[in-house]
Amino acid sequence: MQPSDNILSIEKLTVQFRSGGRWITAVQDVNLDLADRECLGIVGESGSGKSVTALTVLGLHPPKSTRIASGRIRYQGRDLLTLPPRALGRIRGAEIAMIFQDPMSSLNPVLTIGDQIGETLRIHQGLGADDAQKKAVELLDMVRIPDARRRVAEYPHRLSGGMRQRVMIAMAIACRPKILIADEPTTALDVTVQAQILNLLRELRRELGMSVILISHDMGVISEFTDKIAVMYAGQVVEDAVGAGLFEQPMHPYTDGLLRAIPDIDSDTARLATIPGSIPDPGRPPEGCRFHPRCPEAVPTCRQTAPAMIRLSEQRQTRCPPRAARRSA
Ligand SMILES: Nc1ncnc2c1ncn2[C@@H]1O[C@H](COP(=O)(O)OP(=O)(O)O)[C@@H](O)[C@H]1O
Ligand SMILES: [Mg+2]
Q: Where are the domains of the chain?
């Protein structure tokens, strides 16, 4: 795909944080492309660098303790990483909007729903108070909150978790963004509500013609939604795929592990297969392949050589040389 086809391109992004007097690499050499109206899924266990990547797009890291060691984030011909803060501020929330990981603490308890949605509209679109309230009601309708006219005057504590997440989505789409980044939008919700929120996102994406980046630790959520998937582990993309090939033939043992962890809804007694071990401390990543200490298929070279991304086809890339070799054999 030519770069010009993409609305957003993250190229070789490396993000570091200062910790205990040195720089720790949280995200390394990440490449991601998002085409117009496409949905990209980013999946990986907690701590793999998904949120750090997303927050970098919007320039939301604490500047003093953060270093972008390399990379570019191209959006409409510009590099968001070198944009002056004011210019980035005009894009953030308006053209690129985000639903943050923790909806419960992202709403202000002392402001009504209408005032909070209205704030975005006043800042970015210069609407007056009355128009902002009117538009807030429309937005609550759009996210299928029943009785929007009454709900607009309520405070967040009156709403269920699912309803609060709908309010967060209403705020995110208030300015009709071109790109919506949804960071674990259903993680705090029970399964039925999760499905409703994913459906809503799917419908809004179509209605508004948005591109979406959906972030989740849950392969089940990602599998239902996305056109394209990037699997992250310990700060790196270890495999990516366009289409459903990743589910049919995962090319990285870590992806296998995530797929085995999808709950089977047909058997309530089945135990979830979890990947043994845990994600490494970003301050001390293992030598060689970062996944090798947990990998059931590791061979001696995996302990020594850090694997580069290998392109298998137009649709597929992986950082697992043994599997790539088997496939081409
Ligand atoms: N502001 C920060 N300062 C220092 N370390 C951070 C900061 N934000 C995230 N990290 C670290 O970066 C790593 C990746 O975190 P994150 O992107 O939040 O993971 P996730 O994939 O769960 O979203 C973690 O080890 C986390 O502790
Ligand atoms: Mg996160």
A: 34-64+77-226, 243-261+289-329
